[in-house]
Design goal:
The chain is of the alpha/beta class. It has 2 domains: 137 residues, Aspartate Aminotransferase, domain 1, CATH 3.90.1150; 237 residues, Type I PLP-dependent aspartate aminotransferase-like (Major domain) (Aspartate Aminotransferase, domain 2). It contains 13 helices and 12 strands. The strands form 3 sheets. It has a 7-stranded mixed sheet with strand order 2-8-7-6-5-3-4, sandwiched between helices. Strand 3, helix 6 and strand 4 form a beta-alpha-beta unit. The radius of gyration is 21 Å and the shape is globular. Bound molecules: pyridoxal-5'-phosphate. Pyridoxal-5'-phosphate (PLP) binds next to helix 5.
Length: 382
């Protein structure tokens, strides 16, 4: 066999595995993927098109277009009072996905452990393993899907290198208040571990102000802050993200990036710069619509009798379905077969979440309505 042992033992993403079933079925309403139903706002698309018309078709600096790094630096200053130097502390990446991979590869040595609170985004564990680390999964079920300082501390040992913190979270939608983050920060600083903070859903926080982890007093030197344009600006296909962190870590990440990716496509970087320039209003509009959908979905879940933690942000709900007599996988499979509605089994986000399903409300309002109508019919018949 020619496949590396590490890759061979890696499981395909539970989301993908389930969606292979959906392929080939007609008229399926998918509440599965974490993809905004919005098209990238027109001025951003236009900036990409215009850059091509103008002949911008070359490589950029490995770190990314200076004008984009500068725009990010200014944006972070304005939004969080943060000072990130565009020359040395910001790297433009192929989405948060690449930023995460680079960061882990840049910091991990053999024996290192990476803490992953669960339920978690599907890639954290596998990417940690690929980087040569051992992921340590922290169950947060008892604490409403939130990492508590006590639970964090309990899982730290001498080999712990970093914590991957994601908020608002995929798949639960939970987020953290400043006070909660401050408490986590204390433990992180005390044990001198790194916080890899994936804040890709930051702009989709509905009820309170999102706090950037590195903006907490004293946290910046222990934080690699990851964000991108995929979710907030409906730009998943453009593949642009950014990593901000201590100069030494960003330099190490840039070395890997320079040998593997070279740079993010210039068209996408031009479009991303426009997003920061003129996209604020569109973000607000999309956020308002997601919020409306969140209320609808929560109301419908209540009617169906499915218990669910109220999400603070992102565009997911993570209800427990065991009351129906089915686990998440059975629920998802039968719902798909009978009513052609696709949701993701909770086990995709951690083995112990087999009683849950993830529903994305990034689909249109009308589709959501129809999907819940069908779900109601499905539950009445079982
Ligand atoms: C928590 C989280 N982080 C990262 C990503 C990947 O984002 P990007 O498109 O920026 O690579 C996703 C996508 O679903 C996500 O949910």
């Amino acid at each position: 066999m020619q496949i590396s042992k590490k890759v061979e033992k890696m499981q395909p993403s539970g989301i993908r595995a389930f969606f292979d079933l959906v392929l080939g079925m007609e008229d399926v309403i998918s509440l599965g993927v974490g993809e905004p139903d919005f098209v990238t706002p027109w001025p951003i698309r236009e900036a990409g098109i215009y850059s091509l018309e103008e002949g911008f078709t070359s490589y950029t600096s490995n770190k990314g277009l200076y004008k984009l790094r500068l725009a990010i630096s200014r944006h972070l200053k304005e939004r969080y009072g943060l000072d990130y130097c565009p020359e040395e502390e910001i790297l433009i990446t192929v989405g948060v996905s690449e930023g995460l991979d680079l960061c882990l590869r840049a910091i991990v040595n053999p024996q290192d452990k990476i803490l992953v609170p669960q339920p978690s985004y599907v890639s954290y564990g596998p990417v940690s393993e690929l980087a040569g680390a051992t992921p340590v999964y922290i169950d947060t079920q008892k604490d409403g899907f939130k990492l508590t300082p006590k639970n964090l501390e309990k899982n730290i040992d001498k080999n712990t290198k970093a914590l991957i913190l994601n908020y608002p979270a995929n798949p639960s939608g939970v987020s953290y208040t400043k006070k909660e983050l401050e408490e986590l920060k204390k433990v992180i600083l005390q044990h001198k571990i790194l916080c890899i903070s994936d804040e890709v859903y930051a702009e989709l926080t509905y009820d309170f102000e999102h706090i950037c982890f590195s903006s907490l007093s004293g946290a910046k030197n222990n934080t690699v802050y990851l964000n991108g344009f995929s979710k907030s600006y409906a730009m998943t296909g453009w593949r642009v993200g950014f990593a901000c962190g201590p100069q030494e870590i960003i330099a190490a990440m840039t070395k890997i990036h320079q040998y593997t990716i070279m740079c993010v496509p210039i068209t996408s970087q031009m479009a991303a710069a426009e997003a920061l320039h003129s996209g604020k209003k569109s973000v607000e509009e999309m956020k308002r619509e997601y919020k409306r959908r969140r209320e609808f979905v929560l109301q419908e879940l209540k009617v169906l009798g499915l218990e669910c933690i109220r999400p603070d942000g992102a565009f997911y709900v993570f209800p427990r379905v065991s009351k129906t007599g089915m686990n998440g996988a059975e629920f998802a499979q039968r719902l798909l077969k009978r009513e052609k509605v696709a949701v993701v089994p909770g086990s995709a986000f951690g083995g112990q979440f087999s009683d849950y399903i993830r529903i994305s409300y990034a689909s249109g309002y009308a589709e959501l309505k129809e999907a819940f109508f069908r779900m109601g019919r499905f539950l009445k018949k079982i």
